[in-house]
Amino acid sequence: MRPLVVASLPVSGKDDLRLVSEIEADLVELRLDYMKTLDVTPMELANLKEKVIVTIRDPEEGGIHDVDGSAKAEFLRELASLGVLYDVEARFLHKFQVPYVGKIVSAHYFTRLPSREEVDNMFRRYREALSVKVAVSPIPGYRELLAYLSLKDNATIMPMVDNPLERVAFTLLGSKMVYGYVKEPTAKGQLHYSTLVRILDFLFNLR
């Protein structure tokens, strides 16, 4: 099954939201952590809910601006009540009660690799999530870990490497989603989303 192509859009102001309707990807990730303050309401985002994933990434997991944890939790709860899809860090869920069923739960490993037991526990705990997204840096053994992750039913696999072909390769191994950029890369190894669409349409039409 062809993975979903997600176009990651840095949102520094409300004007950026107008771009959503022009982006021909399966979903658009709204990176609200690019805002210095959360200058948008959940209700405004609800108007885009058929198309978007809302992400307020913590700086310790690759985000840009810090957002107060309690304020972020309340914002996500409001999005949940409005039926808006969002991405929330597993680490954040350990601290705050936020709905995750049918949402994306993410974990980013920049300085170490998790053990298989840690991975299994995370996927078991968040088995009702839409997807568990795991991003890892190119630490020795990372490819073996990502291959293990590809056996999980709802995994989104993100190697944080410069070579974008690695991201494409893992789409063939079962990654549920693959992320590209709209204006500028928001993570290592991203291709423009339109390039990803062309590549995946070609590859999956061959199968």
From TrEMBL:
Q: Give the domain of life.
A: Archaea
Q: Which organism is this entry from?
A: Metallosphaera yellowstonensis MK1
Assigned keywords, A-Z: Amino-acid biosynthesis, Aromatic amino acid biosynthesis, Lyase, Schiff base
Q: Name one GO biological process term.
A: aromatic amino acid family biosynthetic process
Q: Where is the active site?
A: H108 (proton donor/acceptor), K133 (schiff-base intermediate with substrate)
Per UniProt, subunit arrangement is:
Homodimer.
Q: What gene is this protein a product of? A: aroD
Q: What does this protein do?
A: Involved in the third step of the chorismate pathway, which leads to the biosynthesis of aromatic amino acids. Catalyzes the cis-dehydration of 3-dehydroquinate (DHQ) and introduces the first double bond of the aromatic ring to yield 3-dehydroshikimate.
Which pathway does the record list?
Metabolic intermediate biosynthesis; chorismate biosynthesis; chorismate from D-erythrose 4-phosphate and phosphoenolpyruvate: step 3/7
Q: What class of enzyme is it?
A: lyase
Query: Which reaction equations make up its catalytic activity?
Result: 3-dehydroquinate = 3-dehydroshikimate + H2O
Chain residues that bind 3-dehydroquinate: S8, E29, L30, R31, R57, R167, T186, Q190
Name of the featured protein: 3-dehydroquinate dehydratase
List the SUPFAM superfamilies hit by this protein, alphabetically: Aldolase
What EC number(s) has UniProt assigned to this enzyme?
Answer: 4.2.1.10
Do you know which InterPro entries this protein is assigned to?
A: Aldolase_TIM (IPR013785), DHquinase_I (IPR001381), Type-I_3-dehydroquinase (IPR050146)
> Which GO molecular-function terms appear in the entry?
3-dehydroquinate dehydratase activity
Can you tell me which family this protein belongs to? Answer: Belongs to the type-I 3-dehydroquinase family.
HAMAP family reported for this sequence: AroD
